[in-house]
Amino acid sequence: MVNKQYSEQFLQFWHDYPTRWIKSSNRYVKIGKELAWLQWRKLTVAERVLASQAVKCEVTSQIIPDPWRWLRDKKFRDFEVVDEKREVFKEAEKRKREREKIRKEDGAYYREKSIKDLEECRKSPVLSNHWFLIDEVLAEKRKDGK
């Protein structure tokens, strides 16, 4: 007999799992909750986490299997789950490359300007993507007393 006390993690998985069209009932449904619960209990903790994350990935124009078959066949391994930390790291690296490019292309231009001109440039919203460079050059000039 199946335990009717589903875990919260399973209930969240069940809620997130997409419905599928059933011709005979002429509606979108999910079937096999008990079978899905049995399959869920067979998964390792890591597999449960992966399944919970993968089920949130958008599924478009695909045949959606019943949740219990999806768990049984471990179809969650077919989804690439976005790692938020990795995405944040990629974004930081992209920004770092962009700033290096700006330093290389425009650094000499700003180094030729006076402190007063740089302070005016710093106020311009048009140059907002250069503010970091203007601040660096201003700090250098103030340090050197130029």
Order of helices and strands: HEEHHHHHH
Residue stretches low in confidence (pLDDT < 50, at least 5 long) are: none
Radius of gyration using CA atoms only: 28 Å
Gross morphology is rod-shaped
Domain module count = 2
H/I helix tally: 7
Give the CA-CA distance, first to last residue.
83 Å
The count of β-strands is 2
Indicate the percent of residues in helices: 55-70%
Major beta sheet, strand line-up: 1-2
Structural class: mainly alpha
Give the amount of beta strand, in percent. Answer: under 5%
Q: What do the pLDDT scores average to?
A: 84
Largest sheet entry: 2 strands, antiparallel
**Oligomeric status:** single chain
Index terms:
two-stranded antiparallel sheet; 2 domains; mainly alpha; rod-shaped; 146 residues; 7 helices; 2 strands
Q: How do the strands and helices of this protein lay out in sequence?
A:
Layout: H1 8-16, E1 20-22, E2 27-29, H2 33-42, H3 45-54, H4 67-72, H5 84-111, H6 115-123, H7 131-144
Antiparallel strand pairs: 1-2
Helix pairs in contact: 5-7, 6-7
